[in-house]
Amino acid sequence: MTDADVRAHLDALAKPRGSLGRLEDIAVRLARTQDRLDPRTRPRRIVLFAGDHGCVADGVSAWPSAVTGMMVATILTGRATSNALAAAHECPLRLVDVGVAGPRIEHAPAFFRDARVADGTASLARGAAMTAAQFEAAWQVGAEEADAAIDDGAALLIAGEMGIGNTTPAAALTVLLTGLPAAPAVGRGAGADAAIVANKTRIVADAVARVAPGLAGDTLGTIAAVVGYEIAAMAGFFARGGARGATLLLDGYVATAAALVAERLAPGSVRAMIAGHRSAEPGHAAALAQLGLEPLLDWGMRLGEGSGALVALPLLDAAAAVLCDVARLDAIGAERAD
Ligand SMILES: Cc1cc2ncn([C@H]3O[C@H](COP(=O)(O)O)[C@@H](O)[C@H]3O)c2cc1C
Ligand SMILES: O=C(O)c1cccnc1
Which GO terms of type biological process are on file (predicted)? Predict the structure, then answer.
């Protein structure tokens, strides 16, 4: 199926040609991700992956690592932004601890999974963030989550993340995998001031300079040196979900860094991806451009947790509804005048 096939289908519906404007472009993209003229956005699922980052001790975030655990606890009570938006848009949510550093959750609800690979990464400022084996373990957790969602019928998948410090590995991966210099790849994350941004920029530049020579020879090991557990899990989630024919709706800068990893290690994953929005993080545009993706929204959002993808989700519902539920012009007895 080609773009032209989807356009021909849209043009045969009971409406003037092109009258739904950009919604028709979104419909084409959605249909192509599932290779069908009647793509589905339901059932769907958002999986939030949580992890901590050793580099927070090196001063890359405005927030301490303990906030990751606090937000995990908040998500478990159903009162985080991600819970609110997921509920608003009827998207079942799961939460997976793949590398949080704090105490383990006890007596968790069924939507939580403890799949902790380690108690946070080592600092990418001082050496490898994780080993190749740890990367593969986290990737596998994400792949299992995609399998479980698709086995339950999900046609559309969103990955979200919670991990104080994770815009630093996201920037390092963007620099490593797009060639963007460190300065335009590094932003304020969850509210870093100018001094933190300067320190973060130096740490990202140094880490990438240290590991980049290994990229061609040991791609997985090089990525592992600057990744985070939640990012590795999101990459495995995307690679498996895309391979099994689900639509992948991307969130912001951190999720897109995972998408870059997925595409590098499982080429072709990008065919399943739709970019929900462009984050306020300055490197996001370059990361999306590397993947050839146009964001649906550009609203200055910079939260993560899958929030931008969840806000964009109704646009895909609208595109699917048009493709699936609108009558053909010939079926109502009319002829084209346009
Ligand atoms: C209360 C709170 C809730 C969040 N939800 C997502 N993030 C987002 O901000 C963090 C990344 O920014 P940085 O790299 O600057 O630390 C991640 O946890 C990300 O999910 C949050 C951050 C905070 C503080
Ligand atoms: O765009 C993102 O993914 C993002 C931006 C700021 C903080 N956390 C995540």
Answer: cobalamin biosynthetic process
